[in-house]
Amino acid sequence: MYQRLVLVGRLGRDPEMRYTPNGSAVTSFPVATSRKYTTSDGQQKEETVWFRVSVWGKQAETVNQYITKGRMVLVEGNLVGDENGGPRIWTDKEGKPRASFEVRAFTVRFLDSKRESAPGAAATGGTPDVAIEEQPMTGEDLPF
Q: Widest CA span of the chain, in angstroms?
């Protein structure tokens, strides 16, 4: 069986990079996807869904170097479930239950330049057109 998730959205905050005890780089960042639609009674609605994205290895270092809050990205990866296969469930500061979808990215494409991501901001130039890809896992790579 196989799954692949493709997201196009904007970063909700700057990426955070860390290293695992064995020295592997991992960068995490939230991505918001939105869709606008008209309800049956004619009202305009916008629906936003947030995804927590993690990127590993050399790709993590490159992503951390080039993207910032507000940038538009295309992410391809796998949806990561909790031990029961569902979204990660947690409680916010106000005691309300929340859930988040987590994605392990194997492709991250930068879709805009720094100038386009922050209207009115003084940018000294855009980032290079970079697409970082990691080979998706094959059946031999799966742990089961």
A: 56
Domain limits of the chain?
5-133
How many angstroms separate the CA atoms of 89 and 113, rounded?
Answer: 34
> What stretch of H or E contains 60?
helix 58-66
CATH code of domain 5-133: 2.40.50.140
Helix (H, G, I), strand (E, B) or coil at 27: strand
- pLDDT of 32: 94
Q: How many CB atoms lie within 10 A of CB 74?
A: 16
Using only the alpha carbons of the chain, give its radius of gyration. 17
Q: Could you tell me the pTM of the whole model?
A: 0.73
Taking the mean position of all CA atoms in its chain, how far away is CA 33? 9
What tens digit of pLDDT does each residue of 32-57 get? 999 999 999 999 999 999 999 999 99
